[in-house]
Design brief:
single chain; alpha+beta; PmbA/TldD fold; 7-stranded mixed β-sheet; 6-stranded mixed β-sheet; 10 helices; globular
């Protein structure tokens, strides 16, 4: 029935003599289960509606509605048409959209245990069981536990003939423990978010996350910051993911390239070590950013942003693909039906290399193994900051059990990646709760092989 309404809307748009019209439908369910020090809250909500884009004489109009009636869909198509026609006369740079194959497809994200089949009671009991873990740790004075889920039904159709339906579900588990001793207060956080079913909880039980963050936070009570300054390190997959996503991935998004990011004008130039290959891919097993088709109906394409140290690609939508003379990569994404699609990443990672953990430590000789991403940010110059959870001493090429509070890593990502000594064999993605916040939220993931390199640490 919904496809029938959408296709009638598309036909109505064609009859308005516009150059292009698309319609997006979304029915999204979001739930949040959270316990703060035993105070349990549950919030749920639905977001449902239509949006449309109309292209006329190089100008684009956008409108949306929470109604799913055909008459209201026609109304917003008419409204978007008026906006496009009103802007066309004064628009100096005309918008064109690159050609794409008009796929007709229905896809369902991978899952074994549908989130819909798990009762609210079971989800609440999972939180309550994890709460008990903290009682075993007297120095944990505060905690936060959470389970979130997104169940998302999307349809995209356009006047080019594309008709795409996607059903995606994404659960998230997260835990934080705050250890306190005298005047010292130390938090530690761990989270997993994947595009799959409730089997995520079997793989990463919330009780185990609560135990892990408690023990990690308490361990840091006895630790001090390492010596700061330029340091050789091995970085685990969490911080590697932040570098790949925040510091490199955003620099490769075509709208930010156009605005002057570090990677503007550097296609086919060497930008870092030849040991580095960075990929953004739409479909990746055991990752949160699963997105087979984007919100323009373009089939997602794997993009090698950097290959062997050479910048080889940008992430784009149909507009920037046409503007830059490139093929659309399927990176146009909107979080809600009333958001306009923007160029966003999906699953971004540093491709694994050929070194074992022991070989990475040997390459560093004397330095630190840095693990656990607590926070991170970057700008389009490639400058970044990543707060880490813990660090372990590497001495004479061997990992020791001497632990430090996780230092903050800073610097320029491309300079840091140019210092690469090696990349680990094992590929893993986990960017925590899995959200990116460029103008609107987007579910993403990131990671890679462990990385041996030199970076600036904030320390004592």
């Amino acid at each position: 029935m919904m496809f029938d309404v959408i296709l009638k809307g598309i036909e109505y748009g064609r009859n308005l003599k516009v150059d292009f019209v698309d319609v997006r439908y979304q029915d999204k369910y979001i739930a949040n289960y959270q316990s703060r020090d035993g105070e349990l809250t549950v919030t749920t909500g639905f977001r449902r509606g239509f949006s449309t884009r109309v292209l006329f004489d190089g100008a684009l109009g956008f409108a949306s509605t929470t109604s799913i009636e055909l008459k209201d869909l026609k109304s917003i198509i008419q409204q978007a048409t008026k906006l496009a026609k009103g802007a066309a006369a004064s628009k100096k740079e005309k918008i064109t959209l690159a050609d794409t194959k008009p796929y007709q497809d229905k896809v369902i994200s991978p899952r074994i245990k549908s989130l819909k089949d798990i009762s609210v009671t079971e989800k609440i009991n999972m939180i309550k069981e994890a709460e008990k873990v903290y009682k075993d740790y007297k120095e944990i004075k505060s905690y936060n536990l959470g389970y979130d889920e997104i169940i998302d039904h999307r349809i995209v159709a356009n006047s080019d003939g594309a008709q795409i339906e996607q059903r995606i579900m994404i659960p998230t588990v997260r835990a934080q423990g705050v250890a306190t001793r005298e005047t010292k207060i130390v938090p530690y956080t761990e989270a997993w978010s994947k595009t799959k079913g409730f089997e995520l909880i079997d793989e990463h039980p919330l009780t185990e996350l609560a135990k892990f963050v408690s023990e990690s936070a308490i361990r840091n009570l006895d630790a001090s910051l390492p010596k700061g300054g330029l340091t050789k390190v091995v970085i685990d997959h969490t911080s590697v993911g932040i570098i790949a996503h925040e510091a490199v991935g955003h620099c490769s998004e075509a709208d930010l390239v156009e605005a002057g990011s570090f990677l503007k004008g550097k296609l086919n130039n060497k930008v870092c070590s030849e040991l580095i290959t960075i990929i953004d891919t739409p479909v990746f097993d055991d990752a949160a950013g699963w997105y087979m088709y984007d919100d323009e109906g373009t089939k997602g394409k794997e993009v090698e942003i950097i290959k062997d140290g050479i910048l080889t690609g940008y992430l784009n939508d149909r507009y920037y693909a046409a503007k830059m003379g490139m093929e659309p990569t399927g990176n146009a994404r909107a979080f809600n039906f009333n958001d306009e699609p923007l160029i966003r990443m999906r699953n971004t990672y540093i491709s694994p290399g050929d070194m074992t953990d022991e070989e990475l430590y040997e390459a560093v000789k004397d330095g630190l193994y840095v693990t656990g991403m607590m926070n991170g940010s970057a700008d389009t110059s490639g400058e970044f900051m990543v707060g880490t959870g813990q660090a372990y001493e590497i001495k004479n090429g061997k990992l020791t059990d001497k632990v430090f509070i996780g230092p903050t890593m800073t610097g320029n990502a491309f300079k840091m990646l140019s210092s690469t000594l090696g990349v680990g064999k094992k590929l893993q993605l986990n960017i925590g709760t899995g959200f990116c916040g460029k103008e609107q939220a987007a579910k993403v993931d990131a990671g890679g092989g462990k990385l041996a390199c030199t970076v600036i640490l904030g320390g004592r």
